[in-house]
Amino acid sequence: MSEQTSPETAGAKLIDGKAFARNLREQTRLEVTAFHEKHAVTPGLAVVLVGNDPASEVYVRNKALETHHVGMRSFMHMLPETTSEASLLKLIDRLNDDPEIHGILVQLPLPKHIDPHRITNAISPNKDVDGLGEVNAGRLSVGLPGIIPCTPLGCLMLLKSELGDLRGLNATVIGASNLVGKPMALLLLNEGCTVSVGHIDTKEPAALARSADILIVATGKNGLVKHDWVKPGATVIDVGITRVPTANGKTKLVGDVAFAEVAPIAGRITPVPGGVGPMTIACLLRNTLKAARMSVGDKGCKESGQKNWLPY
Ligand SMILES: Nc1nc2c(c(=O)[nH]1)N[C@@H](CN(C=O)c1ccc(C(=O)N[C@@H](CCC(=O)O)C(=O)O)cc1)CN2
């Protein structure tokens, strides 16, 4: 990745997640072709959306498009908001038993009447390409190989490509969700970082953040992290995406980090948009290929020319 700064970032290097994700998708496309030639199997991804949340509709549409672009099959299930938990579980059972489907993802958030834990945990661990079920989450927590949640995996890929070996670095994760914060903290711990996690009840989150060489922010509170939260030279990964109105009556996307005041202090920083976001779907495609490989007992990697910048 080329060194990139801009007037707004002053000294900080901008981490270009969009470019990284493009390369990752191309690498995945090549590996899907090689996998198909070897096994005559096309990886298939089923995506389930319940309800009409506009942002979720965009994400699942993009998931289907990108699945096709890398040569995989996409199976979309768009269900009404009123879908019961029982009928969603029935659909997941069917998808678990379908040999053409290697990965299953239920888009989050789900409507309030459906328990997300029960749903993600009903997905067969070998098809759980979100890595949110108890088996994959448990494997991550004890340092065993498994399927890793897409956004934390994308953050880790960016960090390793920027910083190389992470061992011994102080990392602070702000936000402790099952989707991002908790798996991110475990991944960093498994990489040898000294990890702190800040959450809603943390007394002095700014001080915790300021101790970090690597600061990951995933709270959904736009502009939370100010200049005095960041150690000079730190690598800042902004996972937040919030759509806010602008003066001209339009909207724009912003992150959890107050970019204009943090970028001059940070050593490296991800922008929003174009940072972590694009990595999420690129990693979903990697996880789907991994699940397809597991289904035929193919360890992949070497013969498919897997690049050394892919840690998983
Ligand atoms: N089951 C899951 N649900 C959700 C996940 C997930 O990993 N699994 N993550 C998020 C939403 N998400 C994918 O589902 C997602 C978020 C953001 C992006 C992205 O590319 N963002 C762009 C901006 C896109 C835009 O213009 O709106 C960026 O940041 O540059 C992709 C996917 C919650 N739900």
From TrEMBL:
Subunit-level organization: Homodimer.
Keywords recorded for this protein, A-Z: Amino-acid biosynthesis, Histidine biosynthesis, Hydrolase, Methionine biosynthesis, Multifunctional enzyme, NADP, One-carbon metabolism, Oxidoreductase, Purine biosynthesis
Keyword Ion transport: no
Residues annotated as domain Tetrahydrofolate dehydrogenase/cyclohydrolase NAD(P)-binding: 149-294
SUPFAM superfamilies recorded: Aminoacid dehydrogenase-like, N-terminal domain, NAD(P)-binding Rossmann-fold domains
GO MF assignments: methenyltetrahydrofolate cyclohydrolase activity; methylenetetrahydrofolate dehydrogenase (NADP+) activity
Stretches assigned to the Tetrahydrofolate dehydrogenase/cyclohydrolase catalytic domain: 15-130
Record protein name field: Bifunctional protein FolD
Pathway(s) this gene product operates in, as recorded in its UniProt entry: One-carbon metabolism; tetrahydrofolate interconversion
InterPro entries (UniProt xref): Aminoacid_DH-like_N_sf, NAD(P)-bd_dom_sf, THF_DH/CycHdrlase, THF_DH/CycHdrlase_cat_dom, THF_DH/CycHdrlase_CS, THF_DH/CycHdrlase_NAD-bd_dom
Role summary: Catalyzes the oxidation of 5,10-methylenetetrahydrofolate to 5,10-methenyltetrahydrofolate and then the hydrolysis of 5,10-methenyltetrahydrofolate to 10-formyltetrahydrofolate.
PROSITE patterns named among the record's database cross-references: THF_DHG_CYH_1 (PS00766), THF_DHG_CYH_2 (PS00767)
Catalytic activity: (6R)-5,10-methenyltetrahydrofolate + H2O = (6R)-10-formyltetrahydrofolate + H(+); (6R)-5,10-methylene-5,6,7,8-tetrahydrofolate + NADP(+) = (6R)-5,10-methenyltetrahydrofolate + NADPH
Entry similarity comment: Belongs to the tetrahydrofolate dehydrogenase/cyclohydrolase family.
Gene designation per UniProt: folD
